[in-house]
Structure formats: C-alpha cells, structure tokens
Amino acid sequence: MKKKLSLKRVLCALLAIVLVAGLAVTALAAAIPAKAPAQSGVTVYQNAKAAVDASNLADGYVSVKYTGGKDVRIKVRITKSGTTDYYDYNLNNKGTAETFPLTGGDGEYTIGVYENTTGTKYASAYSCTVTLALTSEFSPYLYPNQYVNFSDSSKVVAKAAELIKAAGAKTDLEKVTAVYHYVVNNISYDYDLAANVASGYLPDVDKVLESGKGICFDYAAVMAAMLRSQNIPCKLVVGFAGKVYHAWINVYIEGVGWVDQLIYFDGKTWSLMDPTFVSSGKNDPAVLKYVGDGTNYSQKYAY
Question: What is the pLDDT of residues 131-163, one digit of tens each?
Fold first, then answer.
C-alpha cells in the first residue's frame, strides 16, 4: 500500500527542487577573486597635503592619505560627475592610507580631501578627477574598504571559512545561509552603543565577533566581510527602515542577480536580507513580515 505524502513533505520537496534548479553551483567565486586592496604607487595624484592612489581604479576603489601634517579633522568627499550623489568619509590625519569604494558605476569621479578650519567649516586640501572603467561590476563589493574592513588575518574571515566547512556549503546560497544564521544567532543588539554612538563610528568586525554584540551597522559589516571573504559580492547598504536610519546587506547570487529579498521564503518571495531586525526580533512573525516587505526600506548609500 502506498504511503500518502503529507502536504509539508510535498512543499519541502518542491522548495528543494526550486533551489536546486534555480540556484545551482556557481562559478562566480572562482571567476572573481576577492583581493586585498593595494596601494602600488603606479598611478598617484597628489600635492603636498594629500595623495590619491588610483593604481587599482579598475577594481572599483581608491586609496587616500592625508600628508598635510595638521592635527585637525580630515574629510574625503567622493562625487560622481553628472549626478548630485556624493559620499563623505572621515580620514585619519596620520598619513595612513585608507580605502574607499566607487559604487556609482563607470564614469568620472572627483575625490576631494578637506581640512577642518573652524567648527563645521572645511577648506580644500586637494582634489582630483579620475575616470572609472570597471573590470567587473562586482569588484567594489568584493574588496575591503573603510566600512567593510578585513584582511586575510581577520577573525571574521577564519570564522566564515569555518562555518562554510561545517555546513558543507557548496552554492553561494548555502554559504550565505550559513553565515546569516550564525550572525543572527550569535550577535545581540547593543542598545547602549546605539544610544551613545558617536558621529563617524566605524565597525570593527573582529571586535563585534568577539564581543557578540553590535548595532545594525556592525551586523551588516560583519556579514559583508564574511561573504566577501568567500568571494560573494555583497553590498553594505545604509538607508531607512521606515523612518529609522538603518543598515542591511544585499547579496549577488549567480543566476538570480542582486538579491535584497532572500532568507525568509513564504512560497512566493524571499525576505529582505536584514540580520539586525531578524536577530533582535527573535524570528517573530511580525518582524519577518516587516522585513519581507521591501517597501519598508529605502537605500541611501551602498559601500
């Protein structure tokens, strides 16, 4: 006598077929290796106060350092020509290079370095224009930068490799899932930090991993660092969840494209990839429903 399959088993089987058929093993990781950003000095624009190393421009980033010798606040502004879009960053005044992504696609960018004069006023220290022609559209989201800062020796890189191996993950989706569940289950929201976070705060991904707590910016940076170290293109996105300033990640999956609705699957769509809300909400259905509604989110910046 044949056994009657339960509805649950049928749905699980159908979902498995969809995943296998639509998200097969990807060759993207092998095709686009994540590399450490380099300042080779081959192409440098500079004056006495600042230097912009554009030697690896085609990989979607520049390295900038301030050499003016003043003990003042330094800013970097990156503007894409023909748009009103610009990104403002803090830059150390110790002469150490920092890496900044160019995330607006091919075209001309102006990189300006500014010295604080008084209060909120700044004066131009140096400015140059570069023309970007990317070797790959994914490059800006595979390399470390000031916001997603990691290296081969970072603990998050080792942890990502450990998670992937333990899960036996082969496809990019399986790798994303392993990293996602680790982050939401092992990092708790730091309400004290959120209430007192200073302007210019930058995530320290290894510190967050070790302490097991962080704010939304930290969740997103840790996941982005882990996935980029596995050669999976990942955007750290900053914008608004409703009226709240927030950070989350978007991931590229071969055969699907850039996915901002991924982990929670209701039979029709994937939920927005937002580890902070899911973690702090403890998988509450109301939280999952909110996260799954992409209209609740509006992107402002991508790093």
Answer: 999 999 999 999 999 999 999 899 999 999 999
Structure tokens at 199: 């302007």
| Alpha carbon separation from 202 to 16, 114, 217 (Å, rounded) | 39, 19, 8
pLDDT, one tens digit per residue, over 98-122 is: 999 999 999 999 999 999 999 999 9
In terms of Cα–Cα distance, which of 269, 272, 248, 252 is closest to 260? 272
Q: Which residues belong to CATH 3.10.620.30 in the chain?
A: 155-302
CA 288, 166, 212, 247 torsion-angle sign: negative
pTM attached to this predicted model:
0.78
Residue 67: which of 46, 55, 49 has the closest Cα? 49
> Under CATH, domain 44-139 is a member of which superfamily?
Immunoglobulins (2.60.40.10)
List phi, psi (to 5°) of 60.
90, 25
Q: Which residues of 143-173 are buried (b: 16+ CB within 10 A; e: fewer)?
A: bbbbbbbbeeebebbebbeebbeeeebebbb
